[in-house]
What we know:
The structure holds 2 protein chains of 2 kinds. By secondary structure, chain A is an alpha/beta fold. Chain A has one domain. Chain A has helices spanning about 15-25, 85-95, 100-110, 125-135, and strands at about 5, 30-35, 65-70, 75-80, 85, 115-125, 140-145, 150-155. Chain A has a 6-stranded mixed β-sheet, sandwiched between helices. In chain A, a hairpin with a 3-residue loop joins β7 and β8. Chain B has 2 domains: about 5-235, no CATH class; about 245-413, no CATH class. In chain B, a hairpin with a 2-residue loop joins β14 and β15. The longest helix of chain B is centred in the middle third of the chain and has 20 residues, at about 190-205. The interface of A and B includes residues 33, 43 and 107 of A.
Amino acid sequence: MMVLYGEMDSMTEEQITKKILAWLMDNDWQILSYDFPQSGTGKYLHPNKGIRNIETKNEKAFIPDIVAIRNTIAVFFENKNRFFLDDFIKLKNIRENNIYSDDIDKLLCKYKIVNIYYGIAGINSKHFIANADKHKSDVDFILVVDREISIIEDEYHVFLE
Amino acid sequence: MGYRVWYSTESLADYIIDNTNLSEEANIEKKKMYESDANNANNFHSLPDHIKKILYLDAPDLIVEKDLEPIFSIEISTEAGTGHNVFQRFARLAASVENNVPAFYIYPDAVIIHRENSTRWDKINPLIFKALDKAMDIYQIPALLYYFPTDLNDYIDNPEASPNINTKGLKFDANILSYAGCPDSNSNEMNSMFYAMNAILNEINTYGFIDGRNRTIRCHEIVSRIELMETLYHARVGTRVWSPLSSIIQVPTSKIINYLSNFHDSTYHIGDLLNSRDETIIYCVDAKFRGDPYPGALAAIDYLKSRQGKSFEERYYNLVLAWGKVEETDTGLLIKSNKTNQSVNTFCNKVATSEARSNILNKPFSELNNHEISRYYMQVRYGSMFSKVKEIRVYSYFADAILFYDGALWRDG
């Protein structure tokens, strides 16, 4: 399923990801991995054994756009320069079904992580915010980017100092 | 006018500008590059014609141009370069060099791979150096490989201890906010590459485009690199037959002609091109018909085994791509299929789907949206040249014939 709504803002996914990275670093988060189209930097997380399709090794691999940690918290971001329903559904499924838990545990095993949160960063437009609001229960946080970063959803106060 | 940097990621554009003499240029513009009409129908048609031509086979990650003349292109990968993989991007390099544009290929010497019972370095297939060398030999235009910096030399026996194990042993630039995804700019390899890029910029600034570009192959920095690439090739190649040459067979062309006769009647005669070469190289792919990594591997085989001049007409041997299990008999060939999607109709369906999705030439003017007017006019001139999916473009450019168990396509001239 692929549902796109509304305008494509002039900001690219690369620019959104870099702005979020800068903001996270300014707020003392440690970046474990990041990815944007054609960067070649992403961390592949594979589904747990038993549900992995062994014929195609990257089948259903999840490449988070940002993984960052601070104290006992890890955050996983999906970033887009438009509203992209698939990302909300993907994060909802990951939260509920935990199908990447083996690889996520491996990635985070060196750190004392207690809670993991999944969320979205998008563009600061009325269109994105209105549509994101309809699906906010699927994710733990939603951030929007223009010159500044604004938090529009953070149920668990992940980004409070 | 002045300099323009066409990029796939803005970070790479900034990285190259800031680390070369381009940083001293006042008049420099960055522009986003769109790969093809097939994957970016809204924007591709707006690219300048000379850029479209470089993108025809496949898109590099960056092109630098001055006063509308491309100066060099860059392709960058972070993948493990074993087997066919290192050739996956080869068609992009070929497209650049075939348009007389020097090409830089940044590829890791090895990458840490975790397997069931071990963690190890997967090293680069050395045949890439030979393929680049052959391309340079034919076009007299640099096609240079620089290693994406890694921890290989310091942790060759203990990859688990690599400080960059989270990035497969790759050393990225520490400034991730400006140069996200770019190689460590302090590494020797990247500094050598910046010197070579500066050498090209200097030649072009001093001697102009045509003379300057022709002189680049003799620049000290570039000659040294070519010699080093040759050394790296010989240090590793040994006697092993490396991919993709382990997947080719050489047969008398009469056997190809015989096989093709299964798919036309006796009133038709195959044209002169295939018959003009006594022998034929067949790249045998026993996999479902698909793209990567096979398009790049086919392009590399052309340079490694069959090409002698600047176009496909100048080959020692025909170059043929076959899908399925190929068996040479006394008089001809047998091709068997034991997988789905190995039929000639898989190819034809892919072409038809691509045409149905991308071709707007059947639309009346009143139905063209604003952005489609220029796209329509491009398609009037070029047909679906830029609109087909990559593998169809590359296979039909490089292969003199494509064989399937139930059909075949070939060039008559």
